[in-house]
From TrEMBL:
UniProt cross-references to Pfam families, sorted A to Z: Creatinase_N, Creatinase_N_2, Peptidase_M24, Peptidase_M24_C
Protein name: Aminopeptidase P family protein
Cellular compartments per GO CC: cytoplasm
Domain Peptidase M24: 321-533
Family to which this protein belongs: Belongs to the peptidase M24B family.
Entry keyword set: Aminopeptidase, Hydrolase, Metal-binding, Protease
Amino acid sequence: MFQSFDSTVDPSVGSARCAALRQELARLGLDGFLVPRGDAHQGEYVPPADSRLEWLTGFAGSAGMAVVLADEAAIFVDGRYTIQVREQVDTSVFAPMHLIETPPAEWLEGALKPGQRLGFDPMLHTVAATRRLQTACKAAGAELVAVAANPVDTVWTDRPEPPLGAVTLHPETFAGEPAKAKIARIAGEVARAQADALVMTQPDAIAWLFNIRGADVPHVPLPLSFAVLGANETARIFIDGRKLSNAVRDDLSKLADIHEPAELLPALTALGKTGARVMLDPDWAGAALETAITGAGGSIVEGPDPVVRAKAVKNAAELEGARQAHLRDGAAFAAFLAWFDTAIAAGPLDEITVAERLEAFRADTGKLKDISFDTISAAGPNAAICHYRVDRHSNLTIPQDSLFLIDSGAQYEDGTTDITRTLAVGDVAEEARRHFTLVLKGHIGIATARFPIGTSGAQIDALARLPLWQAGLDFDHGTGHGVGSYLSVHEGPQRLAKTGHVPLQPGMIVSNEPGYYRTDGYGIRIENLEIVTPAREIAGGDRPMLGFETLTLAPIDRRLVVLELLSPAERDWLNAYHHRVLAEIGPLVSEDVRGWLEQATAPL
């Protein structure tokens, strides 16, 4: 099993660990300290050795921050985790705050007192975030103080060792472009930005650039590392050498000079001493990196890492790999759905059993490298927690006459998948079926959208919400995220969300996953992955339009559809989608599964 169901969350640890941290802060002459969820790479995927926020508070979500002052402490999470944080954290120690409605910097302005010293680890806070914190401290008459050693690490006596996942080469068959060609292409972008070098901090971008993959974090093949790419096409990668076999080292050394991670800051200092203009992304690079460069006399060229945008636009080989991965995954998922219907009718099932069986069906493909994230196997009220993770304590038996939500994905060498389906168990109440249909209408609104070149995800996001809005409903997460190619299941810069301001480009892959969540009741989400398709003319139109090609192939539960709520066009879309699912997945499944699939995809 790639997924563990053992719980490491314990709200009771918060009080003692917070007290130990305060004692260490007092020893250092600090009046408070900031504990972000991220690591030095600022990403979503954090190894156990860097899971400081979870260790301190018990919170296991993918985004958040704690602020510990001498007389109060708070934990900041976004709308996905407002329920989860209260279950995992001792709220008598850490007051839950909304990350968006009351950002930490805003909260600090009111909480800090003149003359106080607030500590932070400059490797764990981006350049942009540090500026906001400095402004807040200045407004409160306090001082933001960079620490050389993180005090959380000092009191975390049983901290795990850093990961040493083996690095592998990603074949050009799947990558679609030699690493040397990628390096030349990105070096050209650095030169056009009038910079001498680019500092890369995101491991998925480094993996893409050098055509390598790693095993440092759960479920995502990331090699935790940094890189510096010169405008003259010279490259340096900063990675623990113990992760490299002789063969991988030989190949990688043809592309870049290999250094240990501890050499990064000295290398940036040396670069600064030459007066170099160094490109970095202030929204991703740690403040310590900027300080090393500018403190030595260099200057910063601020801008998005050009690798991130290049990586998001998949080439022909990557797109074909994604299609093949989704065919394989769709067949496995259809077999799972057929099993689920039979098993739930024969007797009770629990959340863990369902997650285990789904992983087993994917493993039966013989191609599964890992799951792409911990499966969200959620019954009843657990499904109302957007990012619920089942463990042996929370594991529920799936009740009859209810909704069951399953959000899962797989890592194959040719592509990454992510799919959510909401399933009927017995006779589902009319209200829940109506809400399901409203979510489906929003899903279809995205899938059928046509939009001009230059349109961003923020402009499209409302299409998924409109049917819910008209009923006085909404959901508190984005409608879609980017997806990598045997890389991160959550990839930027593209998003279908209110904050998604990057224009969509042909070749980008995004998820389409509107939902609805009734606290303590049920959760609904329908998710497919979509490729942004090239512009094409529409008869009678005066400009070409982009659109979406649906990658994911699996039935949407017809039993939950309130037919009269669908327009004729929406009904036709669902029937056409199901016809395609049967045509493409049917030949890949067993005879028994084929019989189930024919019923599940029958026209409405």
